[in-house]
Specification:
It is a single chain. It contains 13 helices and 21 strands. By secondary structure, it is α+β, with helices and mostly antiparallel strands. It folds into two domains: 221 residues, no CATH class; 289 residues, Beta-galactosidase, Chain A, domain 5 (Distorted Sandwich). Strand 4 and strand 5 form a beta hairpin. Helix 11 runs antiparallel to helix 12.
Protein backbone atom coordinates (compact mmCIF):
# COMPACT_ATOMS: atom_id res chain seq x y z
CA UNK A 1 0.00 0.00 0.00
CA UNK A 2 1.09 3.56 -0.52
CA UNK A 3 0.75 4.51 3.16
CA UNK A 4 -0.96 3.56 6.39
CA UNK A 5 -4.16 5.35 5.48
CA UNK A 6 -4.51 3.26 2.32
CA UNK A 7 -3.88 0.11 4.36
CA UNK A 8 -6.70 1.08 6.71
CA UNK A 9 -9.03 1.85 3.81
CA UNK A 10 -8.23 -1.42 2.09
CA UNK A 11 -8.65 -3.28 5.37
CA UNK A 12 -12.09 -1.76 5.77
CA UNK A 13 -12.92 -2.63 2.16
CA UNK A 14 -11.75 -6.20 2.73
CA UNK A 15 -13.92 -6.58 5.83
CA UNK A 16 -16.94 -5.14 4.03
CA UNK A 17 -16.29 -7.43 1.07
CA UNK A 18 -16.20 -10.52 3.31
CA UNK A 19 -19.37 -9.42 5.09
CA UNK A 20 -21.05 -8.95 1.71
CA UNK A 21 -19.97 -12.39 0.54
CA UNK A 22 -21.26 -13.97 3.74
CA UNK A 23 -24.58 -12.16 3.30
CA UNK A 24 -24.83 -13.38 -0.31
CA UNK A 25 -24.24 -16.95 0.78
CA UNK A 26 -26.88 -16.76 3.52
CA UNK A 27 -29.56 -14.61 1.90
CA UNK A 28 -28.65 -13.99 -1.75
CA UNK A 29 -29.68 -17.37 -3.13
CA UNK A 30 -33.35 -17.79 -3.90
CA UNK A 31 -35.28 -20.88 -3.07
CA UNK A 32 -36.92 -22.81 -5.88
CA UNK A 33 -40.33 -21.45 -6.67
CA UNK A 34 -43.10 -23.77 -5.49
CA UNK A 35 -44.97 -25.84 -8.02
CA UNK A 36 -48.18 -24.02 -8.83
CA UNK A 37 -51.54 -25.58 -9.42
CA UNK A 38 -51.61 -24.13 -12.90
CA UNK A 39 -48.34 -25.83 -13.86
CA UNK A 40 -48.90 -28.50 -16.46
CA UNK A 41 -47.77 -32.05 -15.98
CA UNK A 42 -44.29 -32.86 -17.28
CA UNK A 43 -44.23 -33.24 -21.01
CA UNK A 44 -47.84 -32.11 -21.51
CA UNK A 45 -48.98 -28.81 -23.02
CA UNK A 46 -50.05 -26.27 -20.43
CA UNK A 47 -53.79 -26.34 -19.67
CA UNK A 48 -53.88 -22.85 -18.26
CA UNK A 49 -54.71 -19.69 -20.17
CA UNK A 50 -50.97 -19.10 -20.52
CA UNK A 51 -50.53 -21.58 -23.33
CA UNK A 52 -54.08 -21.45 -24.57
CA UNK A 53 -54.20 -17.70 -25.08
CA UNK A 54 -55.82 -16.81 -28.39
CA UNK A 55 -55.86 -13.47 -30.14
CA UNK A 56 -58.69 -12.49 -32.44
CA UNK A 57 -58.06 -9.94 -35.17
CA UNK A 58 -57.75 -6.50 -33.67
CA UNK A 59 -57.42 -7.73 -30.08
CA UNK A 60 -54.71 -6.28 -27.87
CA UNK A 61 -51.88 -8.53 -26.68
CA UNK A 62 -52.33 -10.07 -23.26
CA UNK A 63 -50.44 -8.68 -20.29
CA UNK A 64 -47.15 -10.32 -19.22
CA UNK A 65 -49.03 -12.44 -16.69
CA UNK A 66 -50.60 -14.13 -19.71
CA UNK A 67 -47.22 -14.66 -21.34
CA UNK A 68 -46.43 -18.24 -22.29
CA UNK A 69 -45.30 -20.62 -19.62
CA UNK A 70 -42.60 -23.19 -20.20
CA UNK A 71 -42.74 -26.94 -19.55
CA UNK A 72 -40.08 -28.62 -17.42
CA UNK A 73 -37.07 -29.60 -19.49
CA UNK A 74 -36.07 -33.24 -19.35
CA UNK A 75 -32.68 -34.82 -19.83
CA UNK A 76 -31.78 -36.64 -22.98
CA UNK A 77 -32.40 -40.34 -23.07
CA UNK A 78 -29.72 -42.82 -22.14
CA UNK A 79 -29.20 -43.41 -25.81
CA UNK A 80 -28.05 -39.87 -26.54
CA UNK A 81 -24.56 -39.48 -27.88
CA UNK A 82 -21.56 -37.40 -26.92
CA UNK A 83 -21.91 -33.61 -27.34
CA UNK A 84 -19.45 -33.74 -30.20
CA UNK A 85 -21.11 -36.62 -32.03
CA UNK A 86 -24.20 -36.81 -34.22
CA UNK A 87 -27.88 -36.27 -33.50
CA UNK A 88 -29.87 -38.02 -30.81
CA UNK A 89 -33.38 -38.24 -29.49
CA UNK A 90 -34.49 -36.96 -26.11
CA UNK A 91 -37.40 -38.62 -24.38
CA UNK A 92 -39.81 -36.53 -22.31
CA UNK A 93 -42.02 -38.37 -19.80
CA UNK A 94 -45.64 -38.41 -20.87
CA UNK A 95 -44.93 -37.44 -24.47
CA UNK A 96 -43.84 -38.99 -27.71
CA UNK A 97 -40.19 -39.12 -28.62
CA UNK A 98 -38.86 -35.69 -29.53
CA UNK A 99 -36.20 -35.56 -32.21
CA UNK A 100 -33.08 -33.47 -31.83
CA UNK A 101 -31.49 -31.66 -34.75
CA UNK A 102 -27.74 -31.12 -34.38
CA UNK A 103 -26.03 -28.05 -35.79
CA UNK A 104 -22.28 -27.60 -36.17
CA UNK A 105 -20.41 -24.45 -37.14
CA UNK A 106 -16.78 -23.50 -36.71
CA UNK A 107 -17.40 -21.96 -33.25
CA UNK A 108 -20.38 -23.81 -31.75
CA UNK A 109 -22.41 -26.96 -31.69
CA UNK A 110 -26.13 -26.86 -30.91
CA UNK A 111 -29.03 -29.24 -30.42
CA UNK A 112 -32.47 -28.00 -31.45
CA UNK A 113 -35.47 -29.99 -30.25
CA UNK A 114 -38.22 -30.45 -32.85
CA UNK A 115 -40.66 -29.85 -30.03
CA UNK A 116 -41.10 -26.09 -30.21
CA UNK A 117 -37.83 -25.55 -32.09
CA UNK A 118 -36.20 -24.99 -28.70
CA UNK A 119 -32.42 -24.60 -28.65
CA UNK A 120 -31.89 -26.92 -25.72
CA UNK A 121 -28.13 -27.49 -25.82
CA UNK A 122 -25.20 -25.45 -27.04
CA UNK A 123 -21.44 -25.92 -26.71
CA UNK A 124 -18.79 -23.27 -27.36
CA UNK A 125 -15.91 -24.96 -29.19
CA UNK A 126 -13.31 -22.27 -28.46
CA UNK A 127 -13.96 -22.16 -24.70
CA UNK A 128 -13.02 -24.99 -22.38
CA UNK A 129 -15.31 -25.98 -19.54
CA UNK A 130 -12.28 -26.22 -17.27
CA UNK A 131 -8.72 -24.96 -17.60
CA UNK A 132 -7.41 -28.42 -16.72
CA UNK A 133 -9.45 -30.04 -19.51
CA UNK A 134 -9.05 -27.84 -22.58
CA UNK A 135 -10.39 -30.58 -24.85
CA UNK A 136 -13.88 -30.45 -23.26
CA UNK A 137 -15.93 -27.55 -24.65
CA UNK A 138 -18.06 -25.38 -22.39
CA UNK A 139 -21.78 -26.20 -22.48
CA UNK A 140 -23.71 -22.94 -22.13
CA UNK A 141 -27.24 -24.17 -22.89
CA UNK A 142 -28.48 -27.31 -21.18
CA UNK A 143 -31.96 -28.91 -21.03
CA UNK A 144 -31.74 -30.46 -17.58
CA UNK A 145 -30.78 -29.47 -14.03
CA UNK A 146 -28.48 -28.39 -12.59
CA UNK A 147 -27.80 -25.24 -14.62
CA UNK A 148 -30.72 -25.73 -16.99
CA UNK A 149 -30.64 -22.97 -19.62
CA UNK A 150 -32.69 -23.02 -22.85
CA UNK A 151 -33.87 -20.68 -25.62
CA UNK A 152 -37.53 -20.77 -26.64
CA UNK A 153 -39.84 -19.01 -29.10
CA UNK A 154 -43.34 -19.36 -30.46
CA UNK A 155 -46.55 -17.73 -31.57
CA UNK A 156 -49.73 -16.77 -29.76
CA UNK A 157 -53.13 -15.70 -31.05
CA UNK A 158 -54.97 -16.92 -34.10
CA UNK A 159 -58.50 -16.79 -32.67
CA UNK A 160 -60.04 -20.14 -33.58
CA UNK A 161 -56.92 -21.06 -35.55
CA UNK A 162 -54.27 -23.04 -33.68
CA UNK A 163 -50.79 -21.52 -33.75
CA UNK A 164 -47.54 -23.22 -32.65
CA UNK A 165 -46.15 -22.33 -29.23
CA UNK A 166 -42.88 -23.72 -27.90
CA UNK A 167 -44.90 -26.87 -27.12
CA UNK A 168 -45.75 -27.61 -30.76
CA UNK A 169 -44.15 -30.42 -32.73
CA UNK A 170 -42.12 -29.31 -35.74
CA UNK A 171 -40.43 -31.38 -38.40
CA UNK A 172 -37.01 -30.96 -40.03
CA UNK A 173 -35.78 -32.15 -43.41
CA UNK A 174 -32.68 -33.69 -41.82
CA UNK A 175 -31.37 -34.50 -38.36
CA UNK A 176 -27.93 -32.92 -38.71
CA UNK A 177 -26.62 -29.70 -40.25
CA UNK A 178 -22.97 -28.71 -40.60
CA UNK A 179 -21.35 -25.57 -41.95
CA UNK A 180 -19.47 -26.69 -45.05
CA UNK A 181 -15.96 -25.55 -45.91
CA UNK A 182 -16.16 -22.39 -47.97
CA UNK A 183 -19.70 -21.52 -46.79
CA UNK A 184 -20.27 -18.46 -44.63
CA UNK A 185 -23.71 -19.36 -43.31
CA UNK A 186 -25.88 -22.33 -42.41
CA UNK A 187 -29.68 -22.25 -42.43
CA UNK A 188 -31.75 -24.66 -40.32
CA UNK A 189 -35.51 -24.85 -40.96
CA UNK A 190 -38.24 -26.50 -38.91
CA UNK A 191 -41.77 -26.69 -40.29
CA UNK A 192 -45.15 -26.82 -38.55
CA UNK A 193 -48.46 -27.29 -40.42
CA UNK A 194 -51.81 -26.82 -38.71
CA UNK A 195 -55.05 -28.60 -39.55
CA UNK A 196 -56.66 -25.29 -40.56
CA UNK A 197 -54.06 -24.54 -43.24
CA UNK A 198 -51.68 -22.31 -41.27
CA UNK A 199 -48.03 -23.09 -41.97
CA UNK A 200 -45.09 -21.83 -39.90
CA UNK A 201 -41.42 -22.14 -40.77
CA UNK A 202 -39.02 -21.55 -37.87
CA UNK A 203 -35.67 -20.63 -39.37
CA UNK A 204 -32.26 -20.24 -37.71
CA UNK A 205 -29.36 -18.79 -39.70
CA UNK A 206 -25.89 -19.43 -38.27
CA UNK A 207 -22.82 -17.57 -39.59
CA UNK A 208 -19.16 -18.50 -39.71
CA UNK A 209 -17.13 -17.21 -36.78
CA UNK A 210 -20.18 -15.69 -35.12
CA UNK A 211 -22.26 -16.35 -32.02
CA UNK A 212 -25.10 -14.26 -33.44
CA UNK A 213 -28.01 -16.29 -34.83
CA UNK A 214 -30.67 -14.76 -37.07
CA UNK A 215 -34.04 -16.22 -36.07
CA UNK A 216 -37.27 -16.03 -38.07
CA UNK A 217 -40.82 -17.29 -37.77
CA UNK A 218 -42.40 -17.18 -41.21
CA UNK A 219 -46.19 -17.62 -41.34
CA UNK A 220 -48.27 -18.52 -44.41
CA UNK A 221 -51.96 -17.99 -43.80
CA UNK A 222 -53.86 -20.50 -45.92
CA UNK A 223 -56.84 -20.65 -43.60
CA UNK A 224 -59.17 -18.57 -45.80
CA UNK A 225 -59.66 -15.87 -43.15
CA UNK A 226 -57.53 -13.11 -41.57
CA UNK A 227 -55.53 -14.31 -38.58
CA UNK A 228 -53.92 -12.12 -35.88
CA UNK A 229 -50.80 -13.45 -34.20
CA UNK A 230 -47.95 -12.22 -32.12
CA UNK A 231 -44.40 -13.50 -31.75
CA UNK A 232 -42.73 -14.27 -28.43
CA UNK A 233 -39.15 -15.18 -27.51
CA UNK A 234 -37.91 -16.16 -24.10
CA UNK A 235 -34.92 -17.40 -22.12
CA UNK A 236 -35.42 -19.90 -19.33
CA UNK A 237 -32.89 -21.02 -16.78
CA UNK A 238 -32.27 -22.15 -13.21
CA UNK A 239 -29.78 -20.62 -10.83
CA UNK A 240 -26.12 -21.24 -11.57
CA UNK A 241 -24.50 -24.03 -9.56
CA UNK A 242 -20.70 -23.96 -9.67
CA UNK A 243 -18.92 -26.24 -7.16
CA UNK A 244 -15.58 -24.58 -7.98
CA UNK A 245 -16.82 -21.03 -7.35
CA UNK A 246 -14.64 -19.02 -4.98
CA UNK A 247 -16.39 -17.72 -1.86
CA UNK A 248 -14.31 -14.53 -2.20
CA UNK A 249 -15.72 -13.61 -5.60
CA UNK A 250 -19.33 -12.84 -6.49
CA UNK A 251 -20.53 -12.29 -10.05
CA UNK A 252 -24.07 -11.68 -11.21
CA UNK A 253 -26.20 -14.45 -12.68
CA UNK A 254 -29.69 -13.49 -13.76
CA UNK A 255 -31.81 -11.55 -16.21
CA UNK A 256 -31.05 -8.11 -17.63
CA UNK A 257 -32.76 -5.87 -20.13
CA UNK A 258 -31.97 -2.65 -21.96
CA UNK A 259 -33.87 0.17 -23.60
CA UNK A 260 -33.01 3.67 -24.82
CA UNK A 261 -34.88 5.14 -21.87
CA UNK A 262 -34.63 2.34 -19.32
CA UNK A 263 -30.92 1.81 -20.03
CA UNK A 264 -29.28 -1.27 -18.53
CA UNK A 265 -31.29 -2.87 -15.74
CA UNK A 266 -30.96 -6.11 -13.83
CA UNK A 267 -34.00 -8.25 -13.14
CA UNK A 268 -32.78 -10.52 -10.37
CA UNK A 269 -34.33 -13.89 -9.59
CA UNK A 270 -35.46 -12.44 -6.28
CA UNK A 271 -37.24 -9.57 -8.05
CA UNK A 272 -38.89 -12.02 -10.45
CA UNK A 273 -40.27 -13.92 -7.47
CA UNK A 274 -41.73 -10.75 -5.94
CA UNK A 275 -43.26 -9.22 -9.07
CA UNK A 276 -43.31 -9.95 -12.81
CA UNK A 277 -41.55 -7.64 -15.23
CA UNK A 278 -43.94 -5.66 -17.44
CA UNK A 279 -42.39 -2.92 -19.56
CA UNK A 280 -42.82 -1.84 -23.18
CA UNK A 281 -39.60 -0.90 -24.98
CA UNK A 282 -38.59 -0.10 -28.54
CA UNK A 283 -34.96 -0.57 -29.50
CA UNK A 284 -33.94 -2.71 -26.55
CA UNK A 285 -33.05 -6.32 -25.77
CA UNK A 286 -33.37 -8.98 -23.05
CA UNK A 287 -30.75 -11.41 -21.78
CA UNK A 288 -29.77 -13.99 -19.21
CA UNK A 289 -26.16 -13.46 -18.18
CA UNK A 290 -23.64 -15.28 -16.06
CA UNK A 291 -19.92 -14.97 -15.49
CA UNK A 292 -18.26 -14.51 -18.92
CA UNK A 293 -21.24 -15.79 -21.00
CA UNK A 294 -24.77 -14.81 -21.98
CA UNK A 295 -27.79 -15.42 -24.18
CA UNK A 296 -29.80 -12.47 -25.50
CA UNK A 297 -32.84 -11.92 -27.69
CA UNK A 298 -32.46 -8.77 -29.79
CA UNK A 299 -35.63 -7.65 -31.62
CA UNK A 300 -35.75 -5.31 -34.59
CA UNK A 301 -34.74 -1.82 -33.38
CA UNK A 302 -37.90 -0.13 -34.68
CA UNK A 303 -40.38 -2.77 -33.42
CA UNK A 304 -41.94 -2.24 -29.97
CA UNK A 305 -41.78 -5.17 -27.59
CA UNK A 306 -43.21 -5.95 -24.21
CA UNK A 307 -40.64 -7.45 -21.86
CA UNK A 308 -41.98 -9.89 -19.26
CA UNK A 309 -40.70 -12.27 -16.64
CA UNK A 310 -42.15 -15.35 -14.95
CA UNK A 311 -41.19 -17.82 -12.26
CA UNK A 312 -42.33 -21.39 -12.86
CA UNK A 313 -41.99 -24.67 -11.01
CA UNK A 314 -38.72 -26.31 -10.01
CA UNK A 315 -36.90 -22.99 -9.55
CA UNK A 316 -36.99 -21.95 -13.21
CA UNK A 317 -36.92 -18.31 -14.22
CA UNK A 318 -38.04 -16.77 -17.52
CA UNK A 319 -37.43 -13.44 -19.16
CA UNK A 320 -39.12 -12.91 -22.50
CA UNK A 321 -40.52 -10.47 -25.02
CA UNK A 322 -43.65 -10.43 -27.17
CA UNK A 323 -44.53 -8.34 -30.19
CA UNK A 324 -47.70 -6.38 -31.00
CA UNK A 325 -50.48 -8.25 -32.79
CA UNK A 326 -50.06 -8.58 -36.54
CA UNK A 327 -53.08 -9.42 -38.69
CA UNK A 328 -52.22 -11.65 -41.65
CA UNK A 329 -54.84 -11.56 -44.42
CA UNK A 330 -56.14 -14.74 -45.99
CA UNK A 331 -53.57 -16.05 -48.46
CA UNK A 332 -50.98 -13.63 -47.06
CA UNK A 333 -47.76 -14.17 -45.12
CA UNK A 334 -45.66 -12.45 -42.48
CA UNK A 335 -42.19 -12.97 -41.05
CA UNK A 336 -41.17 -12.13 -37.48
CA UNK A 337 -37.43 -11.44 -37.41
CA UNK A 338 -35.19 -11.35 -34.34
CA UNK A 339 -31.58 -11.96 -33.52
CA UNK A 340 -30.23 -14.29 -30.88
CA UNK A 341 -26.76 -13.98 -29.34
CA UNK A 342 -25.51 -17.04 -27.46
CA UNK A 343 -21.87 -17.01 -26.48
CA UNK A 344 -19.02 -15.27 -24.68
CA UNK A 345 -19.28 -11.63 -23.66
CA UNK A 346 -16.70 -10.37 -26.17
CA UNK A 347 -16.94 -6.62 -25.85
CA UNK A 348 -15.83 -5.67 -29.35
CA UNK A 349 -18.53 -7.93 -30.85
CA UNK A 350 -21.31 -6.97 -28.45
CA UNK A 351 -20.76 -3.28 -29.11
CA UNK A 352 -21.41 -3.82 -32.85
CA UNK A 353 -24.52 -6.01 -32.47
CA UNK A 354 -26.86 -3.70 -30.55
CA UNK A 355 -26.70 -0.50 -28.49
CA UNK A 356 -25.90 -1.20 -24.86
CA UNK A 357 -25.25 -4.91 -25.37
CA UNK A 358 -21.63 -4.48 -24.22
CA UNK A 359 -23.02 -3.48 -20.80
CA UNK A 360 -23.65 -7.18 -20.20
CA UNK A 361 -19.97 -7.20 -19.27
CA UNK A 362 -20.86 -6.15 -15.76
CA UNK A 363 -18.22 -3.71 -14.49
CA UNK A 364 -20.66 -2.29 -11.96
CA UNK A 365 -20.75 1.37 -10.95
CA UNK A 366 -17.17 1.95 -12.16
CA UNK A 367 -17.93 1.11 -15.80
CA UNK A 368 -16.91 4.64 -16.79
CA UNK A 369 -13.36 3.83 -15.61
CA UNK A 370 -13.32 0.11 -16.38
CA UNK A 371 -14.13 0.43 -20.09
CA UNK A 372 -11.15 2.67 -20.97
CA UNK A 373 -8.89 0.52 -18.78
CA UNK A 374 -9.95 -2.58 -20.70
CA UNK A 375 -9.54 -0.76 -24.01
CA UNK A 376 -5.97 0.12 -23.10
CA UNK A 377 -5.27 -3.38 -21.77
CA UNK A 378 -6.58 -4.95 -24.98
CA UNK A 379 -4.50 -2.55 -27.06
CA UNK A 380 -1.35 -3.51 -25.19
CA UNK A 381 -2.22 -7.20 -25.55
CA UNK A 382 -2.54 -6.78 -29.31
CA UNK A 383 1.09 -5.58 -29.30
CA UNK A 384 2.70 -8.03 -26.85
CA UNK A 385 0.43 -11.08 -27.31
CA UNK A 386 0.38 -12.02 -23.61
CA UNK A 387 -2.19 -10.86 -21.08
CA UNK A 388 0.25 -11.11 -18.17
CA UNK A 389 2.77 -8.79 -19.79
CA UNK A 390 -0.10 -6.55 -20.84
CA UNK A 391 -1.12 -6.23 -17.17
CA UNK A 392 2.46 -5.36 -16.19
CA UNK A 393 2.76 -2.69 -18.89
CA UNK A 394 -0.67 -1.30 -17.97
CA UNK A 395 0.42 -1.10 -14.33
CA UNK A 396 3.51 0.89 -15.33
CA UNK A 397 1.39 3.28 -17.40
CA UNK A 398 -1.12 3.78 -14.57
CA UNK A 399 1.73 4.37 -12.14
CA UNK A 400 3.24 6.93 -14.51
CA UNK A 401 -0.13 8.68 -14.84
CA UNK A 402 -0.37 9.01 -11.06
CA UNK A 403 3.31 9.76 -10.53
CA UNK A 404 2.81 13.37 -9.40
CA UNK A 405 -0.05 12.46 -7.09
CA UNK A 406 2.02 9.65 -5.57
CA UNK A 407 4.97 12.01 -5.25
CA UNK A 408 2.88 14.34 -3.07
CA UNK A 409 1.96 11.45 -0.81
CA UNK A 410 5.51 10.15 -0.54
CA UNK A 411 6.89 13.60 0.23
CA UNK A 412 4.35 13.89 3.02
CA UNK A 413 5.44 10.48 4.29
CA UNK A 414 9.13 11.42 4.13
CA UNK A 415 8.52 14.62 6.07
CA UNK A 416 6.51 12.69 8.62
CA UNK A 417 9.38 10.21 8.87
CA UNK A 418 11.73 13.07 9.81
CA UNK A 419 9.46 13.96 12.71
CA UNK A 420 9.29 10.40 14.04
CA UNK A 421 11.89 10.91 16.83
CA UNK A 422 10.26 14.17 17.95
CA UNK A 423 6.80 12.57 17.93
CA UNK A 424 8.12 9.73 20.07
CA UNK A 425 9.55 12.30 22.47
CA UNK A 426 6.13 13.92 22.75
CA UNK A 427 4.63 10.51 23.47
CA UNK A 428 7.13 9.95 26.26
CA UNK A 429 6.50 13.43 27.66
CA UNK A 430 2.71 13.34 27.78
CA UNK A 431 2.15 9.64 28.33
CA UNK A 432 -1.58 8.82 28.38
CA UNK A 433 -2.71 12.43 28.19
CA UNK A 434 -4.04 12.13 24.64
CA UNK A 435 -5.57 15.60 24.55
CA UNK A 436 -2.28 17.38 25.31
CA UNK A 437 -0.43 14.92 23.10
CA UNK A 438 -2.64 15.70 20.09
CA UNK A 439 -2.38 19.44 20.76
CA UNK A 440 1.40 19.26 20.85
CA UNK A 441 1.47 17.21 17.63
CA UNK A 442 -0.70 19.77 15.81
CA UNK A 443 1.61 22.56 16.95
CA UNK A 444 4.63 20.62 15.71
CA UNK A 445 3.00 19.99 12.31
CA UNK A 446 2.13 23.67 12.04
CA UNK A 447 5.63 24.76 12.96
CA UNK A 448 7.24 22.41 10.42
CA UNK A 449 4.57 23.25 7.78
CA UNK A 450 3.54 19.63 7.38
CA UNK A 451 0.02 18.47 6.62
CA UNK A 452 -0.39 14.97 8.13
CA UNK A 453 -3.32 14.34 5.78
CA UNK A 454 -1.51 15.66 2.71
CA UNK A 455 -1.13 12.19 1.22
CA UNK A 456 -4.75 11.13 1.59
CA UNK A 457 -6.27 12.70 -1.53
CA UNK A 458 -3.71 11.22 -3.97
CA UNK A 459 -4.36 7.77 -2.51
CA UNK A 460 -8.14 8.13 -2.56
CA UNK A 461 -7.98 9.09 -6.24
CA UNK A 462 -6.19 5.82 -7.05
CA UNK A 463 -8.56 3.51 -5.17
CA UNK A 464 -11.36 3.67 -7.83
CA UNK A 465 -8.80 2.78 -10.49
CA UNK A 466 -7.76 -0.29 -8.51
CA UNK A 467 -11.38 -1.38 -8.05
CA UNK A 468 -12.16 -0.77 -11.75
CA UNK A 469 -9.16 -2.87 -12.77
CA UNK A 470 -10.33 -5.59 -10.39
CA UNK A 471 -13.64 -5.81 -12.28
CA UNK A 472 -11.86 -5.71 -15.64
CA UNK A 473 -9.72 -8.70 -14.68
CA UNK A 474 -12.69 -10.47 -13.13
CA UNK A 475 -15.33 -9.89 -15.84
CA UNK A 476 -13.42 -9.88 -19.14
CA UNK A 477 -13.85 -13.22 -20.88
CA UNK A 478 -10.84 -12.34 -23.05
CA UNK A 479 -8.66 -13.10 -20.01
CA UNK A 480 -10.45 -16.35 -19.10
CA UNK A 481 -7.92 -19.20 -18.72
CA UNK A 482 -5.22 -16.89 -20.19
CA UNK A 483 -1.69 -18.10 -19.32
CA UNK A 484 1.22 -15.89 -18.29
CA UNK A 485 4.60 -17.54 -17.72
CA UNK A 486 6.04 -20.48 -15.80
CA UNK A 487 3.61 -21.76 -13.16
CA UNK A 488 0.91 -19.14 -13.81
CA UNK A 489 -1.18 -20.80 -16.51
CA UNK A 490 -4.47 -19.07 -15.69
CA UNK A 491 -4.61 -15.37 -14.83
CA UNK A 492 -8.28 -15.58 -13.79
CA UNK A 493 -7.59 -18.24 -11.16
CA UNK A 494 -5.58 -17.90 -7.92
CA UNK A 495 -1.82 -18.45 -8.08
CA UNK A 496 -1.53 -22.24 -7.55
CA UNK A 497 1.78 -21.90 -5.70
CA UNK A 498 0.94 -18.62 -3.89
CA UNK A 499 4.19 -17.06 -5.11
CA UNK A 500 2.66 -13.75 -6.19
CA UNK A 501 0.69 -13.27 -2.93
CA UNK A 502 3.87 -13.92 -0.92
CA UNK A 503 5.87 -11.43 -3.01
CA UNK A 504 3.06 -8.93 -2.59
CA UNK A 505 3.07 -9.45 1.20
CA UNK A 506 6.85 -9.05 1.42
CA UNK A 507 6.72 -5.87 -0.67
CA UNK A 508 3.98 -4.48 1.61
CA UNK A 509 6.19 -5.22 4.63
CA UNK A 510 9.15 -3.47 3.00
CA UNK A 511 7.08 -0.42 2.16
CA UNK A 512 5.87 -0.16 5.74
CA UNK A 513 9.50 0.16 6.79
CA UNK A 514 9.75 3.22 4.53
CA UNK A 515 6.78 4.84 6.26
CA UNK A 516 7.01 6.68 9.59
CA UNK A 517 6.19 4.37 12.49
CA UNK A 518 3.01 5.26 14.40
CA UNK A 519 3.57 6.68 17.87
CA UNK A 520 1.21 4.11 19.39
CA UNK A 521 2.96 0.71 19.91
CA UNK A 522 -0.36 -1.13 19.53
CA UNK A 523 -0.98 0.50 16.15
CA UNK A 524 2.54 -0.45 15.11
CA UNK A 525 1.86 -4.11 15.90
CA UNK A 526 -1.42 -4.02 13.98
CA UNK A 527 0.27 -2.50 10.94
CA UNK A 528 3.02 -5.10 11.08
CA UNK A 529 0.39 -7.85 10.99
CA UNK A 530 -1.44 -6.42 7.96
CA UNK A 531 1.03 -7.74 5.33
CA UNK A 532 0.37 -11.27 6.57
CA UNK A 533 -3.39 -10.68 6.57
CA UNK A 534 -3.37 -9.34 3.03
CA UNK A 535 -1.09 -12.14 1.84
CA UNK A 536 -3.75 -14.64 2.90
CA UNK A 537 -6.54 -12.47 1.50
CA UNK A 538 -4.88 -12.06 -1.92
CA UNK A 539 -4.11 -15.78 -2.11
CA UNK A 540 -7.74 -16.29 -3.16
CA UNK A 541 -7.82 -13.48 -5.73
CA UNK A 542 -7.23 -13.96 -9.48
CA UNK A 543 -3.52 -14.15 -10.29
CA UNK A 544 -3.90 -11.30 -12.79
CA UNK A 545 -5.11 -8.93 -10.07
CA UNK A 546 -2.34 -10.00 -7.67
CA UNK A 547 0.16 -9.51 -10.50
CA UNK A 548 -1.06 -5.94 -10.97
CA UNK A 549 -0.93 -5.19 -7.25
CA UNK A 550 2.52 -6.76 -6.82
CA UNK A 551 4.02 -4.79 -9.70
CA UNK A 552 2.32 -1.65 -8.38
CA UNK A 553 3.82 -2.30 -4.94
CA UNK A 554 7.33 -2.73 -6.34
CA UNK A 555 7.04 0.46 -8.37
CA UNK A 556 5.70 2.31 -5.33
CA UNK A 557 8.58 1.09 -3.18
CA UNK A 558 11.08 2.28 -5.79
CA UNK A 559 9.43 5.70 -6.08
CA UNK A 560 9.03 6.15 -2.32
CA UNK A 561 12.61 5.05 -1.62
CA UNK A 562 13.93 7.52 -4.19
CA UNK A 563 11.86 10.46 -2.86
CA UNK A 564 12.68 9.66 0.77
CA UNK A 565 16.37 9.45 -0.03
CA UNK A 566 16.30 12.79 -1.86
CA UNK A 567 14.60 14.52 1.08
CA UNK A 568 17.03 12.95 3.57
CA UNK A 569 19.97 14.07 1.45
CA UNK A 570 18.60 17.61 1.30
CA UNK A 571 18.09 17.59 5.07
CA UNK A 572 21.64 16.34 5.66
CA UNK A 573 23.08 19.00 3.37
CA UNK A 574 21.05 21.65 5.21
CA UNK A 575 22.50 20.61 8.57
CA UNK A 576 26.04 20.59 7.18
CA UNK A 577 25.60 24.12 5.88
Amino acid sequence: MDNFRLILLMSLAAVLFLIYQAWMEDYGRQQAAPQTAAQSAPGQPAKSADAATSLAPGDEPARPTDAPDAPPAHPASAGSVSPLEGGAASVQPGSATTSVVTVKTDVLRAEIATRGGTIQSLWLKDYAADADRPEVPLQLLKPDAPNMFIVQSGLLGGGDVTVPTHEADFTAAQSAFQLADGDDQLVVELVWRGDSGLEVIKRYRFERGSYLVHAEQHIDNNTGAPTAVRNYDQLQRTELVDPNKSSFIHTYTGAVYYGPEEKYKKETFKEMTKRPLDVSITGGWIAMIQHYFMAAWIPQPDEPQTFYSKVVGDGRYIIGQYSPAVTIPAGGSHTFENRLFVGPKLQDQLDQIAPGLELAVDYGWLTILAKPIFWLLELIHSLVGNWGWAIIILTILIKAAFYKLSETSYKSMANMRKLAPRLKALKDRYGDDKERMNQAMMELYKKEKINPLGGCLPILVQIPVFIALYWVLLESVELRHAPFILWIDNLTAPDPWFVLPVIMGVSMFVQQKLNPPPPDPMQEKIFMALPFVFTVFFAFFPAGLVLYWTVNQLLSITQQWYITRQIEKAEAAKHKA
